[in-house]
Write a structure and sequence with these properties.
mainly beta, Lipocalin, 12-stranded antiparallel β-barrel, 1 helix, globular
Length: about 280
Amino acid sequence: MTQAGTLGAAGFGYNNQFWYGASTRLFGPNGNQLPLNAPVGVKLDNNTFSYVPKFKFLGANLQFTVDLAFSNARYYLIDPFPGRPGTQGGGAGITNTNFVPFSLGWHLKWADLQTGYSLYAPTGYYKPGASDNVSNGFWTNSLQAGATLYLTKSKATQVSLFDVYAWNTTEQGTTVTPGQNDSLDYSLTQTFSLDKSGKWSLEAGPAGYGQWQTTRNTGQSAIREALKYSIEAAGFTTNLSAPHGISVGVSALWEYGARSTFEGHTVVVTASFTL
């Protein structure tokens, strides 16, 4: 949630993000709370490998990324609305894999900017109607853009924005095509030096995200096709940077304003390094 417009330095990088999401509430399309038989919990471990070559293209740094993710369940398996299963999936293993064939990043005086294309492939187990699915059975294309805006000359105070617009193919073995959606992550952080050399620093501040379905679902019942979900969240993020490109961070966010989806909280633990 920080430095969303900033690509890493030339070389190889690895980032691990462990997500834990817990939902205790379910809301309908008008924001009305609906019965929920049991809390919903999702654990997701993302392993992101990246490479930034030394040469530039159109004055920008290039980055190539692949994200291998493992999950115990997915929210799209836990769908209690009309025409879909209403129980939590029990599967575990590799889920969708995210390929980013290119990202372009520019370093300006007061901002870092980046944009790119990504593809989510349903690499995990999926069978229509199965209770142990860990993939969603469809491909997702997305365009992404990020900005890191520096509010002070020292660049210690910054605003981070990252937006992803996604569209999906038809779910395997069904006629269902999920609607398109837009996601926005943001933060306002301050960086504090922890030693005189500046090699150790702590970044912290408020953060949040929102996700909104922008087009209708197709291939389902009329009631289901009319539902469009939305959710927002607010909380805080922290990141400790150490020598040799090592960093660790923790984010915690609480969701609100849910429509046609679950609502709860999310905790993210991040660790990364570059070579």
